[in-house]
Design brief:
- The complex is a heterodimer of chains A (309) and B (184).
- Chain A contains 11 helices and no strands.
- Chain A is mainly α.
- In chain A, helix 2 runs antiparallel to helix 9, helix 8 packs antiparallel against helix 9 and helix 9 crosses helix 10.
- The N and C termini of chain A lie far apart (44 Å).
- Chain B has a single domain, classed as Rossmann fold.
- Chain B has 8 helices and 5 strands.
- In chain B, strands 2-1-3-4-5 form a 5-stranded parallel beta sheet.
- Chain B starts with 7 loop residues before the first helix and ends with a helix.
- The chains are: A mainly alpha (309), B alpha/beta (184).
- At the A-B interface, helix 2 of A face helix 1 of B.
Chain lengths: 309, 184
């Protein structure tokens, strides 16, 4: 029991740290694409320390406080379900659907908080976030169905283990199509351009985030770091083969090698999202919904049909 | 309880290196902000980000002249920001009126209404001068001398008296009333 708790704590620390590094990497890479120097890689950590050390804090009531904690809690729960190599704190049959669901829940928590603040920009942002959430459900569902149909299981751990013998998911045509659709969906889940409609700085001044300041925003930064880690980890687990290295004699060396392999795959997923985000402008909300219900849906549905044949 | 004074150097370092900007770009200084933020001078090296929301802002840039109409908004925005907050006045207009020294409709001394931590002289200051001002601001934050937000609380009577003299008593309440009338 204590061992499991300790393991969960270590995974949480690792995920938070790597997530912050990912946020730093995104900012540096975007800066280099703009031909700028860019901030140091530990900049998001400094931002979070500053936000948590603000001397005054504004709250708009119980739901406002609760929504932020709810978002953080849902993200941590999702992280506990995603297998990190052969490690996983919680494991249940059907966790493929559960993780997909849990990775979207934080947005709902942020929306609770944003709506309760009564700021009109936050209201508009929350509506846009809801519409984006609605738009990504269709391709996301088809991609998950294709995956489950191909491997005949809803367990993420079994999918990772099956890939160790059958090769990565993306070398099979149906799952390659599903992976492409899922990657386009991931762009909206990261909140990167061209699907950053819900935050849209300069247009609706950060949307749902507009009222958060001080410690609320600090907690949301931590949540964002963990969510970034979790989303990339989930993608590399189900499509890029995950990692379960057993060639070394000692289990510690195996764990470290697994983490390094996963880190490389996660960084690759992150880079694709950053490059796409740096070169595209923003969609409007109706364009985004139309896009999601057309191209990724067709691709993912084709993948699902091919997988079931 | 944890003694937070122990972590004060780390916190001050974080505050210094992560100033999020709300810029009030009504005056001509607004045109100096794009080269500062983008590839030419790249302020993001120092962790500074333009930020549209006053609730998570640290540094408030007043870029240019201030009229009574915009001063109301400046005061409201300043009071929305969480402590600690810093103000950087930009150009000679907020200092002494600049070329509007005899205009009936420009504020001559901004620091009678809100505390200004660093003021940059010039008409207009070039981006290098603004960066120099920001460097000065960083030094003040690190040594704990950028205490405008403390002064505003301690001398609130003085600032409120000056604001009321300019706008008349109860201007906040009147403004809220007018805002709600417009919304309805």
């Amino acid at each position: 029991m204590i061992e499991t708790a300790l393991k969960a704590f270590l995974i949480l620390i690792y995920a938070t740290f790597v997530g912050f590094m990912f946020m730093g990497i995104i900012r540096i890479v975007t800066a280099r694409i703009h031909r700028r120097v860019g901030p140091p890689i530990y900049q998001p950590i400094l931002d979070t320390i500053k936000l948590l050390s603000k001397k005054s804090n504004i709250t708009h009531g119980l739901i406002y406080d609760f929504g932020v904690i709810y978002a953080l809690g849902a993200t941590i729960l999702a992280l506990m379900f995603i297998p990190l190599g052969s490690m996983g704190i919680l494991r249940a049959y059907g966790d493929l659907i559960l993780i997909t669901f849990l990775l979207e829940i934080p947005m709902l928590g942020i929306m609770f908080a944003a709506m309760s603040s009564g700021n009109p920009y936050a209201g508009i942002g929350a509506q846009r976030a809801l519409l984006t959430l609605l738009a990504i459900q269709v391709p996301l569902g088809f991609a998950i169905v294709a995956l489950a149909e191909f491997y005949g299981t809803f367990s993420t751990y079994e999918i990772v283990m099956a890939q160790q013998t059958m090769g990565w998911s993306i070398i099979h045509l149906p799952l390659l199509l599903a992976a492409i659709a899922y990657d386009i969906v991931l762009q909206a889940m990261f909140g990167k351009e061209p699907f950053d409609i819900m935050i849209a700085p300069g247009e609706i001044s950060l949307g749902p985030m507009v009222e958060f300041g001080g410690k609320h925003m600090g907690i949301l930064q931590i949540q964002h770091a963990i969510a970034l880690f979790g989303e990339t980890l989930f993608f590399s687990n189900i499509f890029l083969g995950g990692a379960a290295i057993t060639i070394f004699g000692s289990s510690i060396l195996n764990t470290i090698a697994t983490l390094v392999v996963l880190l490389i795959k996660q960084t690759a997923v992150l880079m694709v999202a950053t490059f796409i985000g740096a070169i595209f402008p923003r969609f409007t909300i109706d364009q985004a919904a139309k896009f999601y219900w057309k191209w990724p849906t067709i691709i993912a549905a084709l993948g699902a049909i091919l997988a079931s044949l | 309880m944890v003694d937070w004074r122990l972590y004060e150097p780390l916190i001050n370092f974080a505050r210094k290196r992560s100033m999020w900007i709300v810029s009030f770009c009504t005056g001509c200084g607004g045109i100096e902000m794009p080269p500062l933020m983008t590839s030419r001078y790249d302020l993001e090296r120092f962790g500074m980000m333009p930020n549209p929301a006053p609730r998570m802002a640290d540094l408030f840039l007043i870029t240019g002249y201030v009229t009574p109409k915009t001063l109301k908004r400046i005061i409201i925005t300043y009071e929305m920001q969480p402590d600690p907050k810093y103000v950087l006045a930009h150009g000679s207009c907020p200092l002494n009126g600049g070329i509007y020294w005899d205009a009936y409709n420009a504020i001559k001394h901004l620091d009678k209404y809100i505390p200004v931590d660093v003021a940059i002289a010039g008409c207009m200051p070039r981006p290098e001068a603004v960066m120099d001002g920001i460097k000065k601001m960083m030094e003040l934050i690190e040594t704990g001398k950028a205490d405008g937000w403390k002064r505003y609380k301690e001398n609130y009577e003085y600032y409120k008296k000056n604001q009321d003299e300019l706008f008349g008593e109860g201007w906040r309440e009147n403004r809220k009333k007018m805002d709600s009338m417009v919304n309805e």
